[in-house]
Amino acid sequence: MVVHIDEGALRRLLAGHDEQLAICDTLEQIADGLPHDVDSALCHRTAERLHAVMQEATANERAILGATLVEIGTVRHLDVSRTARRLLRESDEDLSHAEELQDALSTIGTDRPTVCTDALGYMLRGFFEARKRRIALEREVVMALLGTTAH
């Protein structure tokens, strides 16, 4: 089954994936430096970008998943629309986690951090590992629907 997906929305989704993967790399760099090698300026810059990137990612996911997958229905015994709705809920949860990370990252290097470095490392790794898996899944699903190979 080949499905038509708005090319502009697809380009934005894939560009957003690249942006998210770059942030994931930065988050991993920060996590690897904890607790002693913390670049507070990098933490602050990343905190400023994180929420905006995730808001854009959520909007792009809704443009593809909401406009396309939810409408498809069932394909070979898989309820694609139910899967898409689950992915959209998970996007909202990821956005919420990004907001928590943003708050935590913005306080690193100050005299009043909101979380200890062990907790921050756990939060960072949980977030970027989940995002990387999510991006891989989205690319697989979208490319399969387009009838092409992964980007």
Question: How would you explain this protein's 3D organization?
Answer:
The protein has 151 residues and is an all-alpha fold. It has one domain (7-146). The protein is 78% helix and 3% strand. It has 4 helices and 2 strands. It has helices at residues 7-33, 40-72, 80-107, 117-146, and strands at 74-75, 78-79. Strands 1-2 form a two-stranded antiparallel sheet. α3 packs antiparallel against α4 (117-146). It is elongated, with a radius of gyration of 17 Å. The two termini are 18 Å apart. The mean pLDDT is 84.
What is the molecular shape?
elongated
Secondary-structure element string: HHEEHH
**Can you count the helices?**
4
Q: Give unreliable regions as ranges.
A: none
- Major sheet details: 2 strands, antiparallel
- The helix content, as a percent range, equals over 70%
Report, as a whole number of angstroms, the end-to-end distance: 18 Å
Alpha-carbon Rg, integer: 17 Å
Number of individual domains: 1
Proportion in β-strands: under 5%
The residue-averaged pLDDT reads 84
| Side-by-side strand order of the widest sheet | 1-2
Structural class by sheet pairing and helices: mainly alpha
Q: Give the strand tally.
A: 2
